[in-house]
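Feature request, filed as a ticket because there's no other form

It would be nice if the structure record came with a short human-readable summary line next to the tokens. Right now we just get the raw output. Example of a typical job, pasted below so the devs can see what we mean:
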Amino acid sequence: MNLLWLVNVRLPEVSKIMKWESRPYGGWLINSSKKLSELPNIKLNIAYPEKKVKNLELIKGKNINYYAFKPKGNSHFYKSYFDSFQKIIELTNPDLVNIYGTELNHVLPMVDACLKNGTKFVITAQGLTTAIQEHIYSNIPINVILGYTIRNIIKRDNIKRLKNNFMKRAEREKEILNKSEYFIGRTTFDRAVATQINPNINYYMCNETLREEFYKHRWDVQNIERYSIFISQGKSPYKGLHNLLKAVSIVSKKYPDTKLYVAGNMRCFSNNLVDKMLITRYEKYLEQLILKLNLKKRVIFTGTLDEKQMCERYLKSHVYVSASSIENSPNSLAEAMILGVPSVASYVGGVPNMMDHGKEGFLYQHDAPYMLSYFISKIFEDDNLAMNLSENSVKRASKVHDIDSNVEKLVKIYEEILSD
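Raw output as currently delivered:
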């Protein structure tokens, strides 16, 4: 079986081959691509956007051929993408193309290139912008939604424009799904969105494989920083950091040693002049909220963490929180669960498919910080509860994210599509 994947990021093998700086993204693809490429009847090619190439470049890996194409600024570069993908299809002659995600500019040109060449393709769900754009404003004041910083003026990307951008992506996403016959998802949420856009689409269920480091470790309440909370990112408004800050303010009244660790490339309270110029209106709002709630000494922005650093931060944390106003199946929550970190997650999108409330973690209404604080406090005050949640989440996540069974399922889906 000759396969072509279209993904959004560079995989680490390419960085090692080309001696490029590695980026801590795309980890959910590493194990599945590695396992898949090692199967005797599989030939795997991966196309991905790469700023370091002029147009199109072939990079030969151990078992995988990588085709790096030049990313373009916006959807106006349709023809350039289309021509690149025509060339990649010609070079690889795939039996099937698996397109990961529907949200970026290059996806529609690949769909059209496949249709023109008579090549079968399947879409794999990531974030679905048709739904995300409905929830971006959640619990954010109107002056922040409409407000600007210098960066927002230059980039034209304040929260209102972010929503407008997602609305445009949603229209493109609808066109993509209406042109597609096959769709791979993993939650009731992505099934609902995909089949409401295209009632005739063939839906397949396949769980995700996680980054390798997270299969190696287990959380233990005896080895943590007590009363510490971790959120894996907070830069995007719909990730709900503003709601979590309100919850931390409530929790800290009962637990004065409470700390919140926020991962990701954020510019809040940075003394760097460039960061001050590039801070967004939402980040400025977070700063104001932190000062208003007297949380300056409680909130630690860790910066971007690589795979091992992320794993270490999870394992040190007393509680992991997913506070988003919308998600499909956040990999961060899956990583927390397979490590066994007691987790509290907003009841949104596909999250209810990931954990049973009260057994493997706690679910709460995303715009109710008082309920989030209640469940965080329950874990803080009861080590037996924390360990029970931990053990149950590991059992479930280890089964859901088993590498071998997920790759086997993926191959069966490919075979079904090709025999259709």
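Something like this underneath would help us a lot:
The longest strand covers residues 43-49.
The chain is about 45% helix and 15% strand.
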